[in-house]
Design a protein that fits this description.
Elements (H helix, E strand, L loop, with lengths): L3 H10 L1 H5 L15 H22 L5 E5 L7 H7 L2 E6 L2 H10 L5 E5 L12 E6 L9 H14 E10 L2 E2 L6 H30 L11 E2 H11 L2 E9 L6 E8 L2
Parallel strand pairs: 1-2, 1-4, 2-3, 4-5, 6-7
Antiparallel strand pairs: 5-9, 8-9
Helix pairs in contact: 1-5, 6-8
The structure holds S-adenosylmethionine.
């Protein structure tokens, strides 16, 4: 995945700001993240996430976390689940997490960013936060869902946090135009991303790519893969009062 490049750089230079890019919190600034605040933020965010997952229903035996970063949420998952698998594309993120997440029920995996290095039907739960929004394109996210389906046991559920959008459906011509303009915008952002990566390789500022998923298209794709009981949920997080969206689904 093209985006692996910037995530390896964030993991190496500033893992905590790479994960929680709050103003003034960069490494070396007066108010840089302290470990204790960073992991407290994880506790608070997990409280919000798990409250919604509790309503949907999930099993606490085994969980895979996709894009564990510095272990902000992994620390919480280790307390909730008997067995945790945490994966990331950045070995430096994983090293940081390993120093701070001390549970002996977690196994760490480095991934190439497209596949999940686990056997079929291994876990009953899959969680991810602030990761699917950073893939190069929606298609990359959609193929990751096939991998999730493969490694989930029957009866297992996923909670994936990701930005969602839809086009206004009040007028068909208008929605068609909006979709067309949006596809043009995506081409431009992809070119911009290539330029920013090129600059980064030459010592320029680090880049962070962002995308969002069209909800009805994602719904159809998940159904096509075989997922059942698909639900989209929006809720505010206590930590920043922003609205966040998640998709839940079950492998029956
Ligand atoms: C914004 S951080 C979020 C970390 C963690 N989920 C959290 O909420 O604290 C995004 C993480 O996803 C990882 N990542 C990016 N692309 C990935 C991919 N294709 N597969 C797995 N992890 C990925 C990055 O290396 C980074 O650690």
């Amino acid at each position: 995945m093209k985006t692996n490049e910037e995530w390896k750089a964030w993991g190496k230079d500033d893992p905590l700001y790479g994960v929680a890019s709050w103003a003034g919190r960069r490494c070396g600034k007066d108010n840089e993240w302290a470990d204790v605040e960073f992991y407290d933020l994880g506790r608070s965010d997990w409280r919000d996430f798990s409250a919604r997952w509790d309503c949907y229903g999930y099993n606490r035996d085994s969980c895979l976390e996709i894009g564990c970063g510095a272990g902000r949420i992994t620390k919480q998952l280790c307390e909730k689940f008997q067995e945790v698998h945490a994966l990331d594309v950045s070995i430096d993120m994983i090293n940081y997490a390993q120093r701070n997440v001390t549970g002996n029920n977690v196994t760490w995996h480095v991934t190439d960013g497209t596949s999940i290095p686990l056997q079929d039907s291994l876990v009953l739960s899959v969680f991810s936060s602030h990761v699917f929004q950073h893939f190069p394109s929606e298609e990359d996210g959609l193929s990751y869902f096939e991998e999730i389906y493969r490694i989930l046991k029957p009866g297992g559920t996923m909670m994936i946090h990701l930005p969602l959008h839809d086009f206004p459906s009040v007028n068909r011509k208008f929605s068609k135009l909006a979709r067309y303009l949006y596809s043009f915008f995506l081409v431009l952002t992809s070119v911009k991303a290539d330029i920013r990566r090129w600059q980064m390789r030459r010592g320029g500022r680090k880049y962070m790519h962002g995308i969002s998923y069209e909800a009805p298209q994602l719904y159809e794709k998940l159904k096509g893969i075989g997922f059942d009981k698909i639900e989209f949920v929006n809720f505010p997080m206590q930590s920043n009062d922003d609205l966040h969206s998640c998709v839940f689904a079950t492998k029956t």
